[in-house]
Design a protein that fits this description.
Elements (H helix, E strand, L loop, with lengths): L1 H29 L4 H10 L7 H4 L3 E3 L6 E6 L2 E6 L5 E2 L1 E4 L2 E3 L10 E6 L5 E6 L2 E4 L19 H10 L14 E3 H4 L4 E2 L21 E3 H14 L4 E7 L4 H10 L22 E8 L28 H14 L4 E4 L2 E7 L25 E9 L2 E8 L5 E3 L8
Parallel strand pairs: 11-13
Antiparallel strand pairs: 1-2, 2-3, 3-4, 5-6, 6-7, 7-8, 8-9, 10-12, 13-14, 14-16, 15-16, 17-18, 18-19
Helix pairs in contact: 2-8, 4-7, 6-8
Length: 399
């Protein structure tokens, strides 16, 4: 009987090994470990746009300590009290809704009042009137703030100031232009126009630069998005330090969470942060997000629960494209992503027109750090070919 037992044992081991191999192959195919697998799930369940009749109702109502968020979720208009789990509403008529039973607000009625444009100005929850909170731009696509001081004065001071001194070993700057790496990346650089939160032109050119590893990561994210019909639209990337100083000095204290402290420099200054959104490859238009770009409100947070299902889906798709490439979304801005190696680069204060400038031998150059020698400031230029250092005899106007 022993030979028969041995033969049977060998067969059982062979079957077990075959099952193990099949299981491993199946796991490799099924497991959603890549953006493609993750986003294909998103793609299959891409929400439909919310009904147009509801758009004027979506928003926030009531005081700071008792806010009601009206949002669209899973094809239903819903209400969230103090950011609790949204409760679906039953639509009775265009402006009349009620909570279904059972539920914490069962059978309570909601009656909206609209202005001439169809935008709700208040909602009555039974007998309690809740006024609409004016947190989003009523017209246009850009929220503005009133600067603490005239921006022209702040700009003059910032251009005369110097970035904080930094010690340590840093990589050589290698700022490259995103659209030259991938022409399908589109630009809408708000700070080269007056269409920004301070209503002032800060950049002489509408261009977007990043340190090469970060730029190449953005290109990879853009390529992944194409299979879903989207591309990346850049609002800002490398930002000279003096601009960050103006933002900080102009912004009221209660909104400083949305701007970087120039005493520390920003990740934009280091060429490792990017502000971006999605655009539709067919229409070439930006997609709808939960908030507008550069909006200094709670709607800008990447986990804000309001808006529509489609807006939140767009926001998640952008994040799913960027995070596997080494980016982390900023906690207060869904559009702002920081590259993992940002600490490896110095704070930059170079204007766009001075990036990749030519020196007398015609070599391509990238601008490096500023130094002081006997009270005279010089700008060191690192040659992109010979790696040799050349010193400009007269400092550029930004210093």
């Amino acid at each position: 009987m022993r030979p028969v037992q041995n033969k049977l044992a060998r067969r059982l081991r062979s079957v077990a090994m075959l099952l193990l191999i099949l299981s491993a192959c199946l796991s490799a195919v099924v497991a959603p470990t890549t953006l493609r697998a993750q986003s294909s799930t998103l793609g299959e369940s891409k929400p439909k746009p919310a009904p147009a009749r509801w758009l004027g109702l979506i928003g926030e109502y009531g005081p700071d300590d008792d806010t009601v968020i009206i949002l669209e979720k899973d094809g239903q208009l819903s209400a969230s009290f103090k950011r609790d789990e949204p409760e679906p509403l039953e639509e009775i008529s265009q402006n009349f809704f009620k909570f279904p039973a059972p539920g914490p607000h069962a059978l309570q009625k909601l009656i909206f009042e609209r202005d001439q444009r169809g935008r709700a100005t208040q909602v009555a929850v039974d007998a309690v009137i809740l006024k609409r909170r004016q947190i989003e731009p009523e017209t246009g696509n850009q929220l503005r703030i009133k600067p603490l001081r005239p921006v022209a004065e702040l700009m003059k001071e910032a251009l005369a100031a110097q970035p904080p001194k930094e010690n340590g070993d840093f990589r050589e700057a290698d700022l490259v232009e995103l659209t030259k790496l991938d022409p399908t990346i589109r630009l809408e650089v708000r700070y080269a126009t007056t269409n920004n939160f301070l209503g002032t032109v800060f950049y002489s050119e509408a261009r977007a630069f990043m340190q090469r590893p970060a730029a190449e990561a953005v290109v990879r994210a853009n390529k992944k998005l194409k299979q879903y019909g989207y591309g990346l639209l850049i609002h800002d990337a490398y930002r000279p330090w003096y601009v960050t100083k103006v933002f900080w000095d102009a912004t009221p204290d209660d909104k400083k969470v949305f701007v970087a402290n120039p005493a520390n420099g920003s990740r934009h200054n280091r060429g490792c942060a990017v502000d971006l959104t999605l655009y539709d490859l067919k229409t070439k238009k930006p997609v709808e997000m939960v908030s507008t770009y550069d909006e200094t409100t709670a709607r800008a947070y990447p986990d804000y629960p309001g808006g529509t299902s489609l807006q939140r889906w767009h926001r998640k798709l952008l994040r799913d494209a960027m995070e596997p490439e080494g980016f982390t979304v900023y906690e207060a801005e869904w559009w702002h992503f920081d590259y993992k190696d940002w600490k490896a680069y110095r704070i930059g204060n170079v204007r766009f027109e001075q990036i990749n400038m030519k020196v007398d031998n015609g070599a391509r150059t990238s601008l490096g750090r500023t130094i002081k020698t006997e009270s005279q400031r010089f700008l060191i230029i690192q040659s992109g070919y010979s790696k040799s250092e050349r010193i400009l005899t007269s400092p550029p106007d930004l210093l």
